[in-house]
Amino acid sequence: MQYTRGEIGRVFLLKFKDDDILTDELAGFAKKEKLKAATLVFLGALKKGDLVTGPKKPVIPPEPNWVSFKDAWEVMGIGSIFTNKKGPQIHIHTAMGKKMNTLIGCVRKKSKVFLVIEAVVFELKGVKATKDIDPATGLNLLKILK
Question: How many domains does the chain have?
Answer without folding.
Answer: 1
